[in-house]
Design a protein that fits this description.
alpha+beta, Phosphorylase Kinase, domain 1, 3 domains
């Protein structure tokens, strides 16, 4: 499966699936870049462009609340209700021999957040996105598969805490977030269908119009504020962190459009809770990518690199929570940066990583398609190694994390916030130095850009 599977086997499996709905064999099958979890493949069948969405391995689907058959049924229900969702043609079957997934008609538009953020009328697009989300939240449970789960808030936070334990329970900022979630758990409200991954990257747009809502694998019943908040996380605003709503506009406009379509009111306190929750959720999701790679079932390079994006969420989480600290702690200066020793003697691990990255740059023009994308990922990974080696930063502190989880240390503890700020800045500068919120945090905490 995945990277090692032959093109011939994939084409034969697709031909088998398409034949069940009277479609000709596929042509021009090629892998699309991106996708933190599922694979996407573009193909032509007759005179029509199609997309295959599937798991990189059958084991990758283990432990998920529902499979691709239910995901396809959810998308069909959304499409029938007027949501800008794709049209499903056929689901894969075991005899097709290419795993779990489905084939859908391709939609116009781009999923590229950077291209979407440059469109001429972001305010109009934001309103369309809000209206489509309201339509999703109006879908009737009776029209959806019976295995779509319903979120219990307390169990969901417990699940995050277990993921934290499984990942070593040694990241203090995540521990701070988990404790905050337990202390601020909201009362349940009437559940609605949540898309679960409603953000730029999973939305198609063309000419400032919404043309597709993709990737429904995380759908569940729960608080509508979770869906509303998720797309507003800093990480999903990409280069436009100055626009709080999906990088496209203001929260006021987004909420107004949603409320007008849904007839429901948006509560700021609940919105903040789910913003913190999904920031912790994605921090742990990034960490878990390393475990997927270690298992041997999915050895894609992107997995280990995404695991280092945990530091993005730690910085964002601290920015969300620091307003609860006393004013004196918010004003406290951070510890100084410890200067790195001058390298002497044999080449360090970081210098070797730099040398390999420089060599890879010389062969970049010989690559194309997915191989070129993988080369870029590899160079990014080597840069992470070199910068971490030079900075000597360490994000793990199991004792402090445990103290934070148990409430023995809080944001009122003298010096804690300053220490966490320094750790967050240093780790993110080593892992993802171009992350847009890094500049904002550095300016806020140090007055430097």
């Amino acid at each position: 499966m995945g990277e090692t599977e032959s093109a011939q086997a994939l084409e034969q499996g697709l031909a088998s699936a398409l034949a069940r709905v009277g479609r000709p064999a596929p042509e021009g099958v090629h892998r699309l870049t991106g996708g933190a979890t599922m694979e996407s493949w573009r193909l032509t069948s007759g005179d029509e462009d199609l997309v295959l969405r599937r798991a990189p391995s059958l084991s990758f689907m283990e432990g998920r609340p529902f499979g691709h058959d239910s995901e396809a049924a959810i998308i069909r229900a959304a499409h029938a209700a007027g949501v800008t969702a794709p049209e499903i043609l056929v689901e894969l079957e075991p005899d097709d021999g290419i795993g779990s997934g489905f084939v859908m008609r391709a939609l116009p538009g781009t999923p590229d957040p950077r291209a979407i953020l440059k469109m001429d009328r972001p305010d109009e697009l934001l309103r369309e996105i809000a209206r489509d989300l309201a339509k999703i939240h109006s879908l009737s449970r009776a029209d959806l598969p019976g295995d779509v789960p319903e979120m219990d808030y307390g169990e969901a936070v417990d699940g995050l805490a277990q993921q934290f334990e499984d990942a070593g329970a040694d990241r203090p900022i995540i521990a701070l977030g988990l404790r905050w979630l337990r202390d601020n758990l909201p009362e349940p409200v009437a559940p609605v269908l949540n898309h679960g991954d409603y953000r730029l990257g999973n939305l198609l747009a063309q000419d400032s119009r919404l043309t597709g809502v993709l990737d429904w694998e995380l759908a569940h019943f729960g608080d509508r504020h979770e869906d509303l908040a998720f797309g507003c996380m800093a990480v999903w605003r990409f280069a436009r962190v100055d626009r709080p709503a999906l990088g496209l506009g203001s929260l006021e406009d987004y909420v107004a459009a949603y409320e007008a379509e849904s007839g429901a009111s948006v509560d700021a306190t609940r919105f903040r809770f789910w913003l913190v929750y999904r920031t912790v959720w994605w921090a742990l999701g990034c960490l878990r990518m390393a475990a997927f790679w270690r298992s041997g079932d999915d050895r894609m390079l992107e997995r280990v690199v995404i695991s280092r994006r945990t530091s993005e969420q730690e910085l964002d989480l601290l920015l969300l929570l620091e307003e609860d600290a006393p004013e004196g702690e918010q004003a406290r200066a951070m510890p100084p940066v410890e200067p790195a020793p001058e390298p002497l003697g044999e080449a360090s691990a970081g210098e070797i990583a730099t040398a390999i990255g420089e060599w890879l740059a010389t062969v970049k023009d010989r690559m194309e398609g997915h191989d070129r994308f993988q080369l870029a990922v590899a160079r990014n990974a080597l840069g992470m190694l070199a910068r971490n080696d030079a900075a000597g930063c360490d994000a793990e502190d199991a004792l402090l994390a445990q103290d934070l989880l148990e409430g023995r240390v809080t944001l009122e503890t003298p010096g804690l916030l300053a220490t966490l700020r320094r750790a967050a800045l240093d780790k993110l500068a080593a892992d993802v130095p171009k992350y847009p919120m890094l500049v904002r945090a550095r300016d806020k905490w140090t007055g430097e850009d």
